[in-house]
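Exam prep: given the inputs below (a chain plus N-(5'-phosphopyridoxyl)-D-alanine), describe the expected output before reading on.
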Amino acid sequence: RTVYLNGQYVPETEAKVSVFDRGFLFADAVYEVVSVIDGKLIDFDGHVARLHRSMAELRMPQPPGREELLTMCRELAARNALTEGMIYFEVTRGNPGDRDFLFPSAELQPTIVGFTQNAPLVDRPQAESGVSVVTLPDRRWQMAHVKTTQLLYASLMKAEAKACGADDAWLVRDGFVTEGSSQNAHIVTKQGKLITHPLDSSILHGITQSAVLELARQGVVEVETRSFTVEEAKDAAEAMVTAASAFVLPVTRIDGVQLGDGTCGPITRKLRETYIEFAR
Ligand code: PDD
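Solution:
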């Protein structure tokens, strides 16, 4: 693969980052994942805007501009013949040359990396069969709206979910589902309403969910923004996750409880189809 590092396109084996980079020592870094279908970047501007918001929250100076990031993504897709999959990019606070908790001078150049990942996004068996989740405690820091590379807890919960025989984890704080380990979580009640968590600091404000909810409101389903409990989720007609790497995927099992007939429900299917059509 050809990867991007600080303005250059290099073979992945030649891309070197210092051991003193704050991304490595402090997870002092933010990232984005942009999906690609037929070589087209999906919701690129939304991802750039969120990267800039994440950097502002962490007082990271020198955000890379939209044009620089767009050129990087287009070049990476072209050089790696990416037609369907994801582009990952990350900005760290940079390499101050030593380990020090205090933020370095604002003059320090950030480290910028990007790479591509091939993956089938449109045709996936899980779009029909759905995914199973187990609910696990949300012990992440309380700035989950900032998209940092501090992903150890998400990895730990995914491993825990796998060990339980499930595909993924839904995280729970005070009895309420916040979100998935790396996706936003939504349910459709038996009364036919889509329930989605409020956009506060306990969840990542998903770019995919924002587009999907917008489409949902245009006549697919009534949307209610409030948190929901684990019990409500298990009693729901349908459940789903949204993320750049998933688009919309049905959740058909929560803590071993099957939802509906155990396959993708009609509202989830409609939202997935509508979103893919809109994204193409
Ligand atoms: N994950 N919530 C969390 C905790 C996430 O990590 C993600 C994205 C989302 C969905 O956000 P979006 O729709 O903007 O992708 C929600 C990415 C895909 C990842 O870490 O791979």
